[in-house]
Amino acid sequence: EAQVTQNPRYLITVTGKKLTVTCSQNMNHEYMSWYRQDPGLGLRQIYYSMNVEVTDKGDVPEGYKVSRKEKRNFPLILESPSPNQTSLYFCASSLSWGDQPQHFGDGTRLSIL
Amino acid sequence: AQSVTQLDSQVPVFEEAPVELRCNYSSSVSVYLFWYVQYPNQGLQLLLKYLSGSTLVKGINGFEAEFNKSQTSFHLRKPSVHISDTAEYFCAVSSTDKLIFGTGTRLQVFP
Asked: What span, in angstroms and rounded, lies between the C-alpha atoms of B83 and A37?
């Protein structure tokens, strides 16, 4: 089954404790992206990757890091999480950029205390 | 700069009634337009997309949308909604280097 898998689905942690949210897709998609969803703000793009070893900042990259060492994986790293990063996070992938629809994971709800 | 405006944050409607969810965008370049649906505790799913050609686009679950270039709108419609259509709906605009989502419209269908 074609899918985007995120882990964990839920995480409660404390300020400053490094964490990684994994994202994996099995569709051989070139394009991958991370979004955060906050009430009243819709989805905002954090980082995206056009292909392996190619990443770029989205609209809200501060406090986040990503890497794309393999085509299928695109982890999101919070080196020193803060409470303002409490949010619902989505990973998405698409065959290419622009006219191709995004396939979304089921989301990761992060709470930073 | 591009932007997407979903004018209604919530739309309550009775079952079997028609519904329209409004989306306006601004862009100085050609765009691709999408509508996504998000059911509770799930990720977003594609409802329909406009890339080019016919301005009336049909999607899944009986939804359709009309691209209006002069009004820069891409409103989503369904002639008769069902309880199971209760969800959040997002309009999105893609151009050469950005994908921008609207803030979402929560459709609540009542029996």
From this structure: 25
Q: At A53, phi and psi to the nearest 5?
A: 65, 10
The nearest alpha carbon in chain B to A5 belongs to B43
Predicted local confidence at residue B97, as pLDDT: 62
- pLDDT tens digit sequence for B29-66: 777 899 999 998 888 999 999 988 888 999 999 999 99
Calculate how close chain B gets to A97, using CA atoms only, in Å. Answer: 8
Provide the β-strand partners of residue A91.
A34
Q: With a CB-CB cutoff of 8 Å, which residues 46-105 of chain A face chain B?
A: 90, 92, 98-99, 101-102, 104-105
Q: Across the interface, do A102 and B46 touch by the CB < 8 Å criterion? A: yes
Could you report the per-residue pLDDT of A40-65, keeping only the tens digit for each? 888 999 999 999 999 999 989 999 99
Using a 10 angstrom Cβ sphere, with 0-12 exposed, 13-18 middle and 19 or more buried, the burial of residue A2 is: exposed
